[in-house]
Amino acid sequence: MSNLEDKPDEMICAARRSGVEVMTPRDVPLGGPRAMTVRRTLPQRERSLIGAWCFLDHYGPDDVAETGGMSVAPHPHTGLQTVSWLFTGEIEHRDSAGHHALVRPGELNLMTAGRGISHSEVSTGETTVLHGAQLWVALPADARDGTPGFEHYAPDAVTGPGWEARVFLGSLLGSTSPVATATPLLGAELLLGAGTEVHVDVDPSYEHGVLVDTGVVSIGEVETKQHELAYLPPGSQRLSIDAHVDARVLLLGGPPFGEAIVMWWNFVGRTHEEVVGFREEWMAQLVDEGYAEGRFGVPTGNDLPPIPAPALPNARLKERR
Predict the structure, then answer these.
(1) pLDDT at residue 17 in the model
(2) Which pTM value belongs to this model?
(3) N or C, which terminus of the chain has less Cβ within 10 Å?
(4) 129: which strand partners?
(5) At a CB cut-off of 8 Å and minimum separation 6, what does 29 contact?
(6) Residues 6 or more apart from 125 whose CB is under 8 A from it?
């Protein structure tokens, strides 16, 4: 998904603090008069990354008849991977590396931008309710200029007393995703019945985030409400989630990223000059007829006009750790 804000914030890797943090989302409209609104919990001023996870938009359930659904025209990415995860609905993906796929509930679609890619995302005509999450993963220095790619994976459910899980990245609860990532990552959906408390063995070198899609849960002793994101620092070997009512959560994790990044609009780079260059290259591809070949390529089978990049802020983009 594209960041369609007219004046996107400069998003910078922030300092980490000890202790559990609960973060509330901000609403961000994507598009025009019938804008689809998403809830953005990463990045925030207080925290920009959880492991390599650097961006989290959460949306729906939306009545497509009222909102118009998702119609995100071709836009560019660099230095990241996009992770699409749906609860309800269906989205058609097309990218400039030649991939055409349908994003369906409970199935991972992971697109690697690497040195540069462009793609579009449009909800299908059969979709009446759209509900899901779009996440980005920052690529480390040794992978960020790699070849663009795409992977699809439909994880089987694993179950226990009062809970069900689908592990789409990494390993959890005896289930391991075969999808390779540039840094160690964890990504899983958990469904918890009311009154269920699940104790999950986790890697103590990871920091973790728990996004509450529905319900209210306690992470340890900290209550986390619907749409909030709880952050847990490294150090724990076990994570406890107690569902007060029926709940669905996304559990994300990874070791601290350890690299400075500059993230602006749809680009992840390392310096102001690099991001400026990415923007210039994308804008150079936009021509009267649509758009031309270049770093970001052209998605095949797409009839939507590409999204121009917004103006850069009147200040130097900062690089921080």
Answers:
(1) 38
(2) 0.92
(3) C
(4) 63
(5) 4, 35, 36, 37
(6) none
Spatial contact of 76 and 284, defined as CB atoms under 8 Å apart: no
How many residues comprise the chain?
321
Residue pair 26/39 in contact (Cβ under 8 Å)? The answer is yes
Q: Measure the CA–CA gap between 140 and 12, rounded to whole angstroms.
A: 15
Torsion of CA 55, 265, 81, 11, to 10 degrees: -40
Nearest to 232 by CA among 260, 253, 259, 201: 253
Question: Using alpha carbons only, what angle is made at residue 54 by residues 48 and 56, rounded to the nearest 5 degrees?
Answer: 100
CB within 8 Å of 207: residues ≥ 6 apart: 16, 50, 51, 231, 232, 233, 234, 253, 254, 255, 256
pLDDT, tens digit, for every residue of 153-174?
999 999 999 999 999 999 999 9
3-state secondary structure of 277: helix
